[in-house]
Each structure stands twice: as structure tokens, then as C-alpha cells.
User: Fold this.
Amino acid sequence: MTGPAARFRKLWDEIASVGRDAGSGGYLRYALTPPELRLREWFREQADRRGMPVHSDGNGNLFAWWGDPATGPNSHDPNSHDPAGTGAVLTGSHFDSVPQGGAYDGPLGIVSAFLAVDELRNAGAEPVRPVVVAAFVEEEGARFGVPCLGSRLLTGDIDADRAAGLRDAAGVSFADALGGRPAGPDPALLGRFAAFVELHVEQGLALVDAGVPVAVGSAIWPHGRWRFTLRGAGNHAGTTRMADRRDPMLTYAFTVLAANKEARLRGAHATVGRVVVEPNATNAIPSLVTGWLDARAAEPDTLHGLVEAVHAKAAERARRDGVELTVTQESATPLVAFDGGLADRLAGLLAAPMLPTGAGHDAGVLAAHLPTAMLFVRNPTGVSHSPAESATDDDCAAGVAALARVLEELACH
Ligand code: HGY
Ligand code: MN
Ligand code: MN
Assistant:
């Protein structure tokens, strides 16, 4: 085996085909389904290969420890991270994908973490505190509907009973998929970590424009998900006069267009990418249409104004259509400003630019609980949540080297 790019490719190829749709090239790695379970087994194999004991937090998250899990502060107050930084350094990401997702979103952070550990060991580095590789469960929310479910359970940002009861499209609960009620917050475990650094493929073209392979994250846009439930009157497509209809599909279509317009007016992002129609028959006026709005903006006020405007326009149209509208917020992520001191330190260390993102990450959840940073790796297409997502082996190897440098800086002095 030759250089770092070849080392990356060799490990990457061990998982590249897991959960891949041979037709589209996209990935179907939903949390706790066979492909993702296979990746969790692979995680354990990698940890075993490196003599890293694997612990679970009882929420579906896995943690592979380099260094004794028993060492380091065992603070029961996650806010009392040891200022001397004697706690463990956490890295890693997620395995799960959106439907037809790309190869790199998530797994790149985990594969890079194991390779970074290898690089440190090969260089004879001696961490003075544990280095921990994490695999967080259900980051995309593609199966149970709430993104960053695993990291939110660990931090207590979602109630364990609510999480237990979340159900997938087949009606399987998260608790059933997990094999039991999630344990919920683990402040003792969280208190053992002095910092979290997540490496992730960039989901945009900023690094292509900058001409560099790696950047440090500065912030995550505030964003959330809202479920629009539109209840009308199901009826026959052929015999129901147009004037007599209460068609929720009309309100839905208007809402989608309104979301697009209101986002453009505000320089924000609004997407309606998921809809469920009942009875979903060509010759039946729908009785129920459910659509999900994903809304994001650089500032909280802009996001709030966007959602308010879309809600108001949908409500006004629903009244005209004789349709009953219910809007429910399913998840919310506040503006995440990563730890400025840590981000500056890493940007200086790596001579890398700083980059905000509109994409959510487990790092965005943990950032409220411990010093957190992100590293982004260049994506030549800039596309994500699609089979077109890409990254070159050389840039991935540059990401591994950057992560190894960061872990050396944080864990070996
Ligand atoms: O939706 C997001 O921003 C992330 O990819 N889960
Ligand atoms: Mn994603
Ligand atoms: Mn991701």
C-alpha cells in the first residue's frame, strides 16, 4: 500500500458498497436497518482491529476509545468540562443517509477518524488523554423524522420517551428498532469529553471556489422542519364539480410556491421535498395531504419571518379552499456558532479558511454542551443528499491529515 490517498481508498472501499443502490448509485442507509447495522458492525471491527473498546450510550450511539474510558474527568455536570482539557477528545460522525444520499455525508467523518488514529499511532504519538471515535445514530432523521436523534438523546435535547415513540413509515418505533427504550441523557459520559471535532464532506462549493481541500466550520444556520397537514374532502375526480371541491392538493401546491417565493425574498432556503397524499389515487380528490417544510436562514429572525409568512399564506389559501390546516414544528436547530477559540485555533493550526454552513450536524447539537469544531472536506460537485455528492481520494487524505493534526494538538499535549 502506498501513500495516504491509497490508505484512504483501501479503507473506504470496505464500506463503499454497503447500502448502495446499484441502479442510481445513491445510498439507502436508514438508521438501524440492515445496511446501517452492517456499518455498525464494521465500526466494531475497525475498533477491535485497533484495540479500541467500544461502548454504547444506550441511545444507539457507539464510542470507540483509544485510551482508558475510565480515565479523564468523570464530571456529572456536563458544563464543568475540565478547563485544563484533561477530558477525552471526541471525533466521528454518522453512518445513516437520506434516501438516495451520497457516499460521503457522515461516513467520511468516521472513516477519517479511524485513519487519523492510525496516522497518530504510526507517528508514535502518545495521547495524554483518550481519543474517542463516535458513530451517532439517525443524524439525518430519514427514518424516524427527527434529525440528530442520537446526539440529541445523549445531550438530553430530546425527551427519551418522545424519541422511543417515533415511528418509521412502516410503523416501527425507534425503541423497537433500537431493541429497547433509549437510555436518554448521559451527563457523566458527556462530561468526559473536553471537545468534539466532526469532519464532514462540504455540502456546497465554497472550498472549490477557495481552491483548498479543507476548511474549519464557523457556524451552522438556524433551521427546522415543519409538518403541514392539509385536510380536505376526498371525492370522485370525475363526478365532483370544481366549485364543490375542498381539495387539499391546491392548498399544498400554493404553499410550496409561497415557501419558494418567501425564501427568495429573504435570501433564505426553503424546501418541500416530502409529501404524503391520501388516498393517493389518480381518480380521487385527496382527503389529506401532508407536506414537510425544511426552512433555513443565516439569522434566527429571518428564519422566523420566513416560516411565519409561509404559514400565513398557507392559512389564507386553506380558508379559500375550505381545507383545514395544521402546522406542527417537528425539529428546531438554533444558530450554532462554533466555539470561537477552538475554531480560530484550528484554522490557525491548519492554515485553513473558516466556513459557515446551512447543513445540520451532530456537531451542531453537541456545540451547546462542549467545545465543538467542524472540518469540511472539498466536494468538487458541491452536491449533497444525492448520488452526485463527491470527494477525491487526495482531498479525503488531506482531511485525514488535518484531523490527525487536530487530534494531536488537542490530545497529545
Ligand atoms: O439536513 C441536514 O442539514 C443534515 O444533512 N442532516
Ligand atoms: Mn446529511
Ligand atoms: Mn451529515
Q: What stands out?
A: The CA atoms of residues 5 and 195 lie 27 Å apart. The chain has two domains: 4-221+335-411, 223-333. Residues 98, 105, 140, 385 surround manganese (II) ion (ligand 2) (CB under 6 Å). The mean pLDDT is 95.
